[in-house]
Specification:
The protein folds into 4 domains: 7-85 and 96-126 and 145-242, Gyrase A, domain 2 (2-Layer Sandwich), CATH 3.30.1360.120; 316-444, Elongation Factor Tu (Ef-tu), domain 3 (Beta Barrel), CATH 2.40.30; 536-735, Type I PLP-dependent aspartate aminotransferase-like (Major domain) (Aspartate Aminotransferase, domain 2), CATH 3.40.640; 760-880, Aspartate Aminotransferase, domain 1. Helix content is 32%, strand content 24%. The chain is built from 24 helices and 42 strands. The strands form 12 sheets. A 7-stranded mixed beta sheet has the order 27-37-36-35-34-28-31, sandwiched between helices. β29 (600-601) and β30 (606-607) form a beta hairpin. α13 packs parallel to α19 (741-778), α15 crosses α16 (652-662) and α19 packs across α22. The radius of gyration is 31 Å and the shape is globular.
Length: 905
């Protein structure tokens, strides 16, 4: 029997040692499997996984070798990235499943031929995998393949506290970037370590450490001392099964009755297999392609070409998760039935513990209550869908179960949350039974009563938000009474579709009558926005900032395909933007408005989006030193600047200089959604700094109604003007038909207000933001941003409270009538793990608050957030002095017309 370098530590901790794949390994510690499972889900579990195989690959031709012997696209990796993969056999089954790491060694900067890889394989298959790879390596003579399993130990720390523990030991800079499959090499104690955001327990927070074997004992003890709990193989199995992760010998390899399980029968195959042309011919490709076709049919519920006869079809059976609805445990090999028809076998089964959560959504909290449920995976006929009732033979008794799509969800870091299907089934039945009763009760309430309730609620909410709360949400702005009044006038009910027609000398042709006034308002609005932005062209018909971006993206796709209208239109090949975790806005992300307009990078097999690098000491700022090389390498067709968490001017001038030096015709876009009202000399003049296109929302720092704009400074003589004309066409009829004409009138008044009060308003906003930031810092709160510029150059102030503390702080502030955003900082995994507050001063500046008032507010925020005291009465008192909106035209100036407006509505 083999021992890992941590064998003595396991014995000293009282572990029960068992034989596993030729190794003496801890199956559990005195706490027991159930408690170890729960400890991992609630805090942090530490696993010795040094028994797994670790093969080091390097040398010329290494990538080609990996492409040939693995199912995933190794070319998609770059140093500091990892991917799950399979080692296929020619028949489309798995020799093993594996994890491939592209190491970020110093050699990596010398180019792809110098890249080094680590392939982690299962302990039971280590010798078999080694022989398999060695037999193929003969065709790749320059590839160096080393078995480093003995010299390199491997530890796994999984669970919500794992991040904190690693930071305590190594510092925050030692953690890889947020996001699964990122890794980072660090130096510690004179040795080189690699920390990867990988693991096999389903946790949203989990790390694996590769350390020299002689350092493993110290690393293990340090991690335990910092708060991790030792976990054995027993809980590792229940954890992976709850997460729906396959295990070789169960969901992969030889299945029941010696039936070879096809790779695409496995739930993770869609992540582990690439059929990219870049891979060329690799082992088992033709069979896997046939499996993929069958898999697509199964996903689309096209079962006509499938049956459950072994060998007749590529995927006669699929691995499905199940949850037992009766007492018992379904073990591997148990037969599965629908009525009297046998549909397959259990591949893994256990009784897994779980924690209870109370509350809904972001209000849900982990309790101290736990329970257990019988769960598992089964290899069953491909036409059996999720939430199908099945029967599993357990010791001669057929127990009721249900197939399910998942048992655990991990998209809300830092916690993994169990999904319980028995209560779901019961609740759905109860809801169906209660629907007629609820419907009859609703019908019994007369409509006048419902209207009265709505009016009362609206009045109460408006009074609370406008008179008793301090609003610091940066994306919101109270409209002046004049803007509000005009927004409900007669045009609010009308249609105003129009476009330029060349036959009429580019005159705007309206498709509805009675639109002369609307035409005049649009023209006036365009002129005011031209004046405000200092540009020649503005499109005002888009009804939101996101719609403005979508109109531009659509137009750019159309423009790029202008010379070839017969082929399938190509999308934008390469785009550079701010990552959403680094403050980028959703409307410029591939999961947002970019989704249908950006091409997929054929190498990375992902959207062709590259994110701006950020400064190591200030992740809120773009690293301009790294931009020239990156832009030259990527040659983007579109660069999108602008953020939803924005503290600084964007580097427009620097990027324009780079584009000019490289003679690139890249479209340089600035999404000014959050800072449109600050455009100008006090913050940033986008067109003077080099922007081609500006988009934005008109209701954040700008005074307007909720609409959007697209602007450019091209004239008809400029090469970009053809793109501008395309933007107009893709606005109407491409994006909008009617465009909310009531809010159009309100926006025109807001534009008048902006141009009339721009100078003093912008000065006040920036002064208030800097004063607020300094005051919060003086109160002992950690304010993000460069203190040399007052922590901010915009209306926004960001306070970093600590990992996962943002949600609770925002909720506490709301209870005290201070309205803010919780926000994930650039070092956090997502909004549920938010450790920051994002605040803006623009709305309260309009209500008259000045630097001294924001200092008072900073003290109240400290009382609530840090001292955990109530400040509601002081907040209401503070707000009582700031209820009259400024930087707008007063009703008294236009008293007669305002009275007439009131009478009309």
């Amino acid at each position: 029997m083999k021992h890992t370098s941590l064998y003595d530590q396991h014995l000293s901790l009282g572990a029960r040692i068992v034989e596993f794949a030729g190794w003496q390994m801890p199956v559990q510690y005195p706490t027991g499997i159930v408690e170890e499972h729960l400890l991992t889900r609630k805090s942090a579990g530490l696993f010795d996984i040094s028994h797994m195989g670790r093969f080091h690959l390097s040398g010329r031709g290494c990538l080609a070798f990996l492409q040939h012997v693995l199912t995933n696209n190794a070319a998609a990796l770059e140093p500091g990235k990892a991917q799950y993969s399979m080692i296929p056999n020619p028949e489309g089954g798995a020799v093993d499943d594996a994890y491939l790491y592209c190491l970020d060694t110093p050699k990596a900067v010398k180019g792809q031929d110098a890249w080094e890889y680590l392939l982690v394989v299962n302990a039971a298959n280590r010798d078999k995998d080694w022989d398999h790879l060695q037999s193929i390596k003969k065709e790749f003579s320059e590839v160096e393949l080393q078995d480093r399993s003995e010299e390199l130990a491997m530890l796994s720390i999984q669970g919500p506290e794992s991040r904190r523990i690693l930071i305590d030991l190594f510092g925050e800079r030692a953690l890889p970037e947020p996001g699964r499959n990122n890794l980072l090499g660090i130096s510690s104690g004179g040795a080189e370590l690699t920390i990867a955001r990988t693991g096999y327990t389903g946790e949203p927070l989990g790390f694996e450490l590769f350390v020299p074997a002689e350092m493993a004992g110290k690393a293990w003890n340090d991690l335990l001392q910092a708060g991790a709990a030792p976990i054995g193989l027993g809980a590792r199995d229940t954890l992976r099964l709850e997460a729906g992760l396959p295990l070789y010998g169960h969901e992969l390899g030889a299945g029941p009755e010696e039936w070879e399980i096809p790779i695409f029968s496995c739930p993770l195959a869609r992540f582990a297999v690439s059929l990219s042309a870049l891979k060329g011919r690799f082992i088992g490709r033709e069979v896997l392609e046939a499996q993929f076709v069958a898999y697509r049919r199964i996903v689309k519920r096209d079962y006509a070409h499938l049956n459950a006869q072994k060998g007749d079809q590529p995927l006669p059976r699929m691995i499905r998760l199940f949850e037992l609805q009766e007492r018992g445990i379904a073990r591997q090999g148990a037969e599965v039935f629908i009525e009297d028809r046998r549909i397959g076998w259990v591949t893994s089964g256990t009784m897994a513990p779980y924690w209870f959560f109370e509350g809904e959504g972001l209000c849900s909290v982990l309790t101290d209550r736990s329970d257990r449920r019988a769960i598992g995976m089964a290899l069953i006929d491909s036409d059996i869908e999720d939430q199908t009732e099945i029967r599993i033979d357990v010791r001669g008794k057929r127990l009721q179960a249900i197939t399910v799509p998942y048992l655990l969800r991990a998209e809300a870091p830092p916690m993994a949350r169990p999904v319980l299907w028995a209560p779901v089934v019961e609740a759905r039945a109860a809801e169906r039974a209660a629907e007629p009763v609820a419907e009859s009760r609703e019908k019994a309430r007369p409509y006048p009563q419902r209207v009265l309730e709505l009016l009362t609620g609206s009045i109460e909410n408006t009074r609370w938000r406008q008179q008793h709360c301090v609003n610091l949400i940066p994306s919101e702005m109270t409209q002046s009474s004049m803007v509000r009044l005009l927004s409900v006038m007669d045009p609010a009910f009308r249609y105003g579709e129009h476009r330029k027609v060349r036959a009429f000398n580019d005159a705007e042709v309206f498709y509805y009558q009675g639109t002369g006034f609307i035409d005049a308002v649009e023209r006036a609005l365009i002129e005011e926005l031209r004046l405000f932005l200092g540009c020649r062209e503005v499109e005002t018909r888009v009804v939101s900032g996101q719609m403005a971006n979508m109109a531009l993206f659509s137009a750019l796709v159309d423009y790029l395909n202008r010379d070839d209208r017969k082929s399938e239109p190509r999308r934008i090949r390469s785009i550079m933007n701010n990552h959403i975790i680094k403050g980028g806005h959703l409307s410029a992300q591939p999961m947002g408005a970019l989704r249908d307009f950006v091409a997929r990078d054929p190498v990375r097999e992902a959207p062709g989006v590259v994110n701006f690098p950020v400064c190591g000491d200030d992740p809120y700022r773009i690293d301009t030193q790294a931009l020239p090389e990156l832009i030259e390498q990527q040659r983007p067709e579109l660069i999108v600047l602008g953020k939803s968490m924005i503290l600084y001017r964007e580097p427009l001038k620097e990027i324009r200089r780079i584009l000019d030096q490289l003679s690139l015709d890249t479209v340089l876009m600035y999404d000014m959604a959050h800072v449109l009202g600050l455009a100008g000399s006090h913050f940033q003049d986008p067109f003077a700094d080099g922007a081609d296109i500006v988009t934005g929302s008109t209701h954040k720092t700008f005074f307007g109604t909720q609409r959007g704009i697209v602007a450019a400074n091209w004239g008809e003589e400029d090469p970009g003007y053809e793109l501008w004309e395309t933007i107009q066409r893709r606005t109407f009829p491409g994006s909008v038909s009617n465009h909310h004409l009531g809010t159009l009138l309100g926006l025109l008044v807001a534009a008048y207000e902006m141009n009339a009060f721009k100078e003093e308003y912008q000065k006040a906003v920036i002064a208030n933001a800097k004063s607020f930031a300094r005051a919060l810092n003086d109160e002992g709160l950690a304010v993000a941003g460069d203190p040399d510029v007052g922590h901010t150059e915009t209306h926004q102030v960001v306070v970093e409270l600590g990992y996962c503390q943002g949600v609770e702080a925002a909720r506490a502030l709301e209870e005290n009538n201070i309205i803010v955003n919780f926000q994930a900082s650039p070092r956090e995994e997502g909004f549920t793990a938010s450790g920051a507050l994002r605040m803006g001063v623009s709305e309260m500046t309009r209500f008259g608050m000045g630097p001294e008032d924001f200092k008072v507010l900073a003290g109240l925020i400290r009382e609530v957030v840090r001292d955990r005291r109530s400040a509601k009465d002081q907040v209401v008192k503070l707000r009582s002095g700031f209820r009259d909106l400024r930087y707008c035209f007063s009703d008294k100036e236009l008293e007669r017309q305002v009275e007439e407006l009131h009478q009309l509505i």
